[in-house]
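lol ok so funny story. i was supposed to be doing the assay writeup but got distracted and ended up predicting the structure for this chain instead. priorities right. anyway since i did it might as well share w the group, maybe its usefull for someone
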Amino acid sequence: MPLTTVSRHLAALEDHVGARLITRTTRDLVLTEPGRHYLDSCRRILAELEAAERRVAGEQGEPQGELAVTAPVVFGRLHVLPITTEFLKAFPRVTMRLLLVDRVVELIEEGLDISVRIGALPDSSLIATRVGTIGHVTCASPVYLTERGVPSSPRELVDHDCISFTALSSADRWVYAGGKVPQRIVVRPRLIVNTAEAAIDAARAGLGITRVLSYQVAESVADRSLRLILEDFEPEEIPVSLLHREDRLPQA
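and the output, tada:
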């Protein structure tokens, strides 16, 4: 459909509802707050209509349709993908799109149904269910710790080479528990990376100390290629939640 036709229909729709639904810039189109609510309501109505048609047709016995799920990269590979595989084997009429990214994904804007979120959740119209907690861990290879020594407190990190994973914390400041006030420790990063896998691989190679989430390093700790340190100083564990749009779950 030509862009001019789309613009004309959009303008007519905005006149009909009496509100601006999209903010136009020179490079992008962004939903306004009324636009978000209107889109969410329309999707819910269409989903309910589809469900009603299935009920009339007698197709309600088995889940069907496409399910779009997003999760952090390593968590998705280790935990979501195995569940996904078994789920798809059990329900052959369901297809799934699995998006593994280390960023916050907007479910409605990106057409997704379920999100695995690690950390505190913002207020939203999405339905959230807490499914567990995950802790921060600080670790290094046994070879590095033998050569450079094991820090007994976070403040001793200033004397060590560090590998910073920027999706988790600031490159040069790591936060630890410190009573009522968290300790913001200045570190000296020898390497700054944007993925947990890169941070873990560099630590395994003996480059320095890194800080990631517990599940990201579980395999390396189990095979003893990395050793946990400063465990008594880690902050409280953070929540793991499932967020979903009620209107887009596959029909049962």
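DSSP finds six helices and 14 strands in the chain. The mean pLDDT is 85.
back to the writeup now i swear
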